[in-house]
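Take just one protein record:
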Amino acid sequence: MICFVIAMDKEAAPVISAMEHVKERKISGKRVVLGTLFKKKIAIVMCGVGKVNAGCGTQIAIDKLKAEKIVNIGVAGGLNKDVAVGEVYQISHAVQYDFDLSQINGTAIGTLDECTENYVALNIYGKYPAKRLATGDRFNDSKDDYKLLTKVLEADIRDMEGGAIVQACMNAGVKCYAYKIISDLAGSGSTTEQYLNNLTLCFETLKSELKNITDEIYYG
């Protein structure tokens, strides 16, 4: 089964609205929706915001729903001019920018203890431009974070869940895919205001691209 792990109900709503034969249940406190999407059997775990929630939701999908592939879809912030508001990008690599064992291990910021490099690779196809994702438990306009994300890590997109989902999939040996729709751009004013103003556009994009994304995951 393919399982979508999505942070917020409002991000999952465009997917659920396209589903048929919908059933809902709760697993370990998480809302889970099962049904078919374009005639394919899927499940959605609404994990909640942040890395711990994302890791828990992914493990539920793997252990309880026997997910063979995990798909993370959601809105995210753009970090450079190579991404545009309202556009979809697939994630080729993800890093957790608030994870730092450099003093102990001498490794680059974001390098997990079980890894030798900070970016972890995802499964990708070719229909959407591939970008690098940085994940952290922060939503802010911090200049220090921006410098770390762009100058040190050279990330294109930031979010609060993707890197943790990738880590859980890596450890479980489950294929992981991620697609992000840009809701705000760093350096273009308040990210909060941009995020709120652009959500409708992002969800319309998700609705229009959902079949293409689903077909890509199933057929390559």
Observations:
- The two ends are 16 Å apart (CA to CA).
- The first strand starts at residue 2 and ends at 6.
